[in-house]
Design brief:
With 443 residues, the protein is of the alpha/beta class. It is 47% helix and 16% strand. The strands form two sheets. Strands 1, 2, 3, 4, 5, 6, 7 and 8 form an eight-stranded mixed β-sheet that branches. Strands 9-10-11-13-12 form a five-stranded mixed beta barrel.
Length: 443
C-alpha cells in the first residue's frame, strides 16, 4: 500500500518536472539566396522569438549562398541571440550558408546534405575575388567557429583551398565541403536527422510547442521591393517619369509615377537598415542639379552630368551596407550587385524612352498636349537685332512650368518664366533674355 502511494507521488512529481522542462521552440526558414531580404527576415524572426519568450530558435536552412555582407548580418544576429539557436540543414549550407550554419549553437543535417565551399566569388563570372575579401571571410569563419567551440581550421578550410588538415576529408588545392557523415566526424554536425519533427523528438520536445514564423503582408511587400530586379524597374520608372513629364508638361501622371517609384525604392531599403537620410539627401541634390541644368542653365554641361552621377550614385549606395562611405566590409561581389541594378535600370530607361517616344509622338493624346508646330529657332541673343523683342507681347502656345513655347509676331520661340506657372493661350510679354532663351511674364 505504502509502495503504491509512493509510486503515485513519484509519478506525479516526474510528470510535473516534465511539464516544467517543456521547451518552447520558435521556427523559421531560409530557403533562398542570402541577400537583404533574408537578413531582414532573420532580424524580424529573432525579434519575434524574443518577444514570444522562446527557449530555443530552430532555423531550417537550404541555400547555395549569396551576399557576404548580409550573411555577416545574419551571423551576428544568431551569435547575439538571447536563446540557443539550432540549425537544420535539410539540403545545402554552401558559401555564405556555411557561415550562417556555424554561427548556430547546434547543427543537425539531413541525409545527403552538405556544408562548406565558402570561397568568396564574383557574382558575374563565378571567379574568386581578390585576396583581401578572402582574408576577411576566413577571419569570420575562424572567429565564428571558435565562438561555438568548433575547429577554426576546418571552418577556414571552407574558404582556403591551401589549408592542410590532419584528416583525409580534404584534398590539397580544393576548398572543403563536408557531407553529413563527415561533418559529424569533425564536430560540425551534432546528429543526422531528416526532419524538424525528429529534431524535436530526440530533444524531448512536443510538436505543440513549436511556433512558426511567417512574414506579415507588409513585410512581404518590403521584401518584394528590395529585390534587385524590382529595384531596376523602379529606377526605370523614376527616369522615364521625369523624361516624359518634361516632354508633356502639365500632364502630371509621369512625374507622379516617378515620385511614387522613388518612394517605393527608398523606404524598403531604409526600413532594412541600408538606406540612410544622407543618401536620400544625395539623391535629392542630384535631381536638383538635373533640374537646374534643364530649367535654368542653357545647354547641358557639368551641372547636368554631376546631377546624373550624384543621383544614380545615391541609388547604388542605398543598396550597400556602407558606413558613411566606408566600404571596407563590402566585397566586390556586393558592389557589383549594387551597380548592376542601377546600370540595368538606366539602360532600360534609355531604351524605353526611345521606343516610348516613337509610339507616344504618334498618339492623338500626345499631339493634344504638345506643340505640333515646328520651332523656327530660339531667340538668338548673339544677334543684336533680336534684343528688340524685349518688351514685345505675344501668347503662350504651351503651358509653361516654367519652360514652354510662345508665339511673338507670328514666330515660335523657346521661353521660360521666372518660376511662375503660365497656362496655355495666356497673353505674355518678353521682359528679358537669358542666353538664347526669352524670359516672359503674364500680362
Amino acid at each position: 500500500m505504502k509502495k503504491s502511494i509512493l509510486n503515485t507521488v513519484l509519478g506525479l512529481f516526474l510528470f510535473s518536472l516534465s511539464l516544467q522542462a517543456q521547451k518552447k521552440v520558435f521556427y523559421f526558414s531560409i530557403d533562398a539566396e542570402i541577400d537583404t531580404r533574408t537578413s531582414r527576415k532573420t532580424q524580424l524572426a529573432l525579434e519575434k522569438a524574443t518577444a514570444s519568450k522562446a527557449d530555443i530558435v530552430l532555423l531550417e536552412l537550404n541555400t547555395y549562398g549569396g551576399v557576404v555582407n548580409d550573411a555577416d548580418k545574419i551571423r551576428t544576429l544568431l551569435l547575439n541571440a538571447k536563446m540557443p539557436v539550432w540549425v537544420f540543414i535539410n539540403k545545402n549550407a554552401a558559401s555564405a550558408g556555411a557561415l550562417i550554419a556555424i554561427a548556430c549553437d547546434s547543427i543537425y543535417m539531413a541525409d545527403g546534405a552538405n556544408i562548406g565551399a565558402a570561397t568568396v566569388v564574383n557574382g558575374n563570372d563565378g571567379m574568386p575575388v581578390p585576396e583581401k575579401y578572402q582574408s576577411y571571410m576566413r577571419s569570420m569563419m575562424r572567429s565564428t567557429a571558435e565562438t561555438n567551440g568548433r575547429n577554426p581550421k576546418i571552418a577556414e578550410a571552407f574558404v582556403d583551398p591551401d589549408i592542410i588538415l590532419d584528416t583525409n576529408i580534404k584534398k590539397m588545392g580544393k576548398v572543403l565541403t563536408l557531407t553529413t557523415s563527415e561533418a559529424i566526424k569533425v564536430g560540425f554536425c551534432d546528429k543526422k536527422l531528416n526532419s524538424v519533427d525528429e529534431i524535436l523528438s530526440i530533444n524531448g520536445i512536443s510538436a505543440q510547442e513549436l511556433e512558426k514564423f511567417e512574414l506579415t503582408l507588409t513585410e512581404k511587400i518590403i521584401a518584394f521591393f528590395i529585390n534587385p530586379a524590382v529595384s531596376s524597374i523602379l529606377i526605370l520608372i523614376i527616369i522615364g517619369g521625369i523624361y516624359f513629364e518634361l516632354q508633356t508638361p502639365g500632364v502630371g501622371f509621369p512625374i507622379a509615377a516617378s515620385v511614387v517609384a522613388a518612394v517605393l525604392y527608398f523606404i524598403p531599403y531604409y526600413l532594412n537598415g541600408l538606406a540612410a537620410y544622407w543618401e536620400l539627401g544625395l539623391f535629392i541634390v542630384g535631381l536638383g542639379l538635373i533640374g537646374l541644368e534643364i530649367f535654368v542653365i542653357p545647354g547641358f554641361g557639368i551641372t547636368g552630368v554631376s546631377g546624373i552621377v550624384i543621383a544614380f550614385g545615391a541609388l547604388g549606395l542605398m543598396m550597400l551596407g556602407n558606413n558613411q562611405l566606408d566600404f571596407s566590409s563590402v566585397s566586390e561581389a556586393e558592389l557589383t550587385g549594387a551597380v548592376w541594378p542601377v546600370f540595368i535600370g538606366l539602360i532600360s530607361s534609355v531604351v524605353v524612352i526611345i521606343l516610348g517616344f516613337k509610339v507616344l509622338s504618334k498618339s492623338t493624346y500626345f499631339k493634344e498636349v504638345t506643340l505640333d508646330e515646328k520651332i523656327i529657332k530660339p531667340l538668338p541673343y548673339s544677334e543684336g537685332v533680336d534684343l528688340q523683342l524685349i518688351g514685345k507681347e505675344g501668347i503662350s502656345v504651351t503651358s509653361m512650368r516654367p519652360i514652354g513655347r510662345i508665339k511673338v509676331e507670328n514666330r515660335i520661340y523657346e521661353a521660360t518664366t521666372n518660376g511662375q506657372y503660365i497656362a496655355e493661350q495666356t497673353n505674355i510679354k518678353i521682359v528679358s533674355l537669358h542666353g538664347n532663351t526669352a524670359i516672359v511674364e503674364p500680362i
